[in-house]
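testing teh design pipeline on a random one, pls ignore if ur not involved
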């Protein structure tokens, strides 16, 4: 059985609700620090205040092109630059899913490359929204994310028809390059579930449930 700290250090403690208030954001920041999570993942509008609040005690992650991914590349680049200027440490971007369906793979790769360049040394995680893709498309996205130089491939936004599955994490682990890590997001029910995702290859877990489980 995995130690709880081994799990929590992989958690992006997440609150992306449209109705999230500053008090709620502050609360997850406090919990993240107390439990030693990898980051807090929060809406862009709270990044500046959250980073001022946590300082160097916790990494702040935010989302770009969220949750639908169909913003133009220029808009996503601006969002990243704004987020970094406000103090974000990590960026989770959503791909243009329509481009994948249209097999515009070169355009998808160019966009990820451009956004990684905008991130500079900061971590870029690429959300491919697995619940909307075929297995063939998921495998292709593993190749594209690897070639584009992103740091992570991530399963889900949590705002579509499904979250991470164990099968998708196993598929990612088989097909991504050595330099790409895996983030499972959404659908993680409890500590036992989290352990299964990690065992299959997930390096990060996007969820709020793990800390809730630990708090009882």
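output:
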């Amino acid at each position: 059985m995995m130690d709880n700290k081994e799990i929590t250090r992989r958690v992006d403690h997440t609150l992306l609700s449209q109705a999230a208030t500053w008090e709620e954001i502050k609360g997850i920041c406090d919990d993240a620090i107390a439990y030693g999570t990898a980051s807090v993942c929060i809406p862009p509008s709270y990044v500046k205040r959250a980073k001022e609040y946590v300082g160097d005690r916790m990494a702040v992650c935010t989302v770009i092109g969220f949750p639908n991914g169909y913003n133009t590349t220029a808009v996503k680049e601006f969002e990243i630059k704004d987020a970094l200027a406000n103090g974000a440490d990590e960026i989770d971007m959503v791909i243009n899913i329509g481009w994948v369906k249209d097999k515009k793979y070169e355009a998808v790769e160019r966009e990820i490359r451009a956004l990684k360049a905008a991130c500079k040394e900061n971590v870029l995680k690429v959300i491919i929204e697995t619940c909307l893709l075929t297995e063939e498309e998921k495998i292709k996205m593993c190749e594209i994310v690897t070639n584009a130089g992103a740091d992570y491939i991530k399963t889900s936004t949590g705002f579509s028809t499904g979250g991470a599955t164990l099968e998708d994490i196993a598929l990612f682990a088989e097909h991504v390059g050595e330099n790409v890590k895996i983030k499972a997001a959404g659908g993680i029910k409890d500590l036992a579930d989290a352990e299964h995702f990690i065992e299959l290859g997930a390096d990060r877990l996007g969820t709020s449930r793990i800390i809730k489980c630990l708090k009882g």
